[in-house]
Amino acid sequence: MTERMRIGLISFGPAEFTALHETCAEAGHEAVVYAYSRSMRPRSAPEAGAADAVRRIVAALPAGVDLLLPGSPAGLGAAVRGYGLDLLVCYGFSWRLPPSVLTAPRYGVVNIHCSTLPKYRGPAPVLWAIRNGDPYLGVTAHRMDEDFDTGPVLAQRGGVPIPDDVTPESLWEGLAPVLRGVLAVALERVRDPAAGEPQSAAGASHAGLMEPEFAVVDTARTAREVHDQVRTFRFMGPGRGPLATVDGRPLRILRTSLTPADGPRLACADGPVWITDSEVVPVAAEEVVADAQPRSPERGFSNPIP
Questions:
Q1: In the CATH scheme, what is the homologous superfamily, with its name and number, of domain 6-189?
Q2: Which helix (H) or strand (E) covers residue 177, if one does?
Q3: pTM (2 decimals)?
């Protein structure tokens, strides 16, 4: 008979918590506590959308499950130790977890990372997959250690399509069933201390935050690269887009097409893109820099940020 584990879940939204919770329940385990990071960085003010995210999570919170809103990794560690957990499952938490958290559960922490590790280690694997024009995304469940996404792999699967007009909602349709399947395998293996394949250094890459310059279109790049740049911002959230000067006007580019379409034509290194949605936005330089970064862990982050 399968040993029933007490599990804590760390994530960022109601759909994500639900997927983790239901997968644990289907495997015969009990999720007893959720933890949500209310800020992108520990010990910082809550993000603008945190209150709404908490409201939505609470509305979907199963009866008898607690919700933690830690302000620091130390606070999270102190809280989870009180639950006598067998396992923590982390998906999309924006902080780097310290040893006080990693060692609190009996079987440690399993992290779900949206790439086929060791590819795209770091906080923004989805954004880099979109930016690089990858047709597919992968999902890996691995034992979490103190480094960035380097722990032994318990389960892994690729082949999640990335739509051209990708949004968190459209990506989740294909991602959710794969995530559930990967987590189910990891739950079967995690109690064996010898389970998990070490990651190879070959093919390792880092998926860090977008550089400030990424907020501005560089027409010396190819049309495909510019199109994927716009797609990356669109994934971050509504109204997000890089800036370009078109016909003497500063525009925020919200959507483009690689084939002829209604809208201004923007010449790139190897051909044009057509701007199908944009807005005129005179902005200060510091606003351009800020716009290159996601404003919430819901927009392309896996984990963690120190």
A1: Formyl transferase, N-terminal domain (3.40.50.170)
A2: helix 168-189
A3: 0.91
